[in-house]
Amino acid sequence: MGEHQTMNVDEVETLICEYYWRKAEIQRLQELLYESCGSMVQFKMVATYGVEAAMPVGSKGKSMAEYQDIERREERILKQLEKYKNIAMFIELGERELKGHLHEVIYSCMMDGMSYRAIAKHLKMNKDKVRKLKDECLRQLSQNRHFRQNLHYLKYHKQII
Q: What does pTM read for this prediction?
């Protein structure tokens, strides 16, 4: 169990450190989807009377191939968005599993993308102490049955990590 547990600790640490950019990417992908939905809705005004009504009108909109490309892109974005949201939620729930206010603060700082040096400066403590507390956080999480089950679910059922 020791080697497998260490691997989970390393994975969790990486996920925590990647949380900050994932949240920014979730925001960007949501904005892309919102913009994409707006571009799909187009209204076409056509003359309904006189000679103009009988004349062929060229399409000012997108072709079917362009719509299919947009749909495929949206599907990729939706899959990526779901993956990032699941990971972000998993990391956010991890913060609740910690015992000790200082552990929660360090975990939160890691989620914000802060380096050990920045966390140490923020907490006015030595960098080695921060590293030791961070290791305790990860150890707490790796020994928490609920947290391990969630990680297992993400890895093997959602297949996202």
A: 0.74
